Amino acid sequence: ADAIGALPYFLQQVQAPIFGSELTIELAKLAIKEQEALKDYDDYHVVNAKTEIDFGTVTVSFFNTTHSIPDSMGIVLGTPFGQIVYTGDFKFDQTAEK
């Protein structure tokens, strides 16, 4: 959610849905609302750590991460060849239970 500044410009070139946590979606809506050309954009999808999306041969699932931005998540792409995990950036939580 802390790296969405280019999102409105991206959406002017590529019509794509936005998937994110509740907080990420709200921040995206604020960024997009500033662009007159996107005033009617409404393709938002809230996901959480239990969400799994099937795109045919690829599935996408999410997991919670520790970050300076609340409600951050990592992504797992399940492919026929294995899994690809993307975390973006994160921080270690020294207070987490073992």
UniProtKB/TrEMBL annotation:
Gene3D superfamilies cross-referenced by the UniProt entry: Ribonuclease Z/Hydroxyacylglutathione hydrolase-like (3.60.15.10)
PANTHER family: RIBONUCLEASE J, RIBONUCLEASE J 2
Protein name: Uncharacterized protein
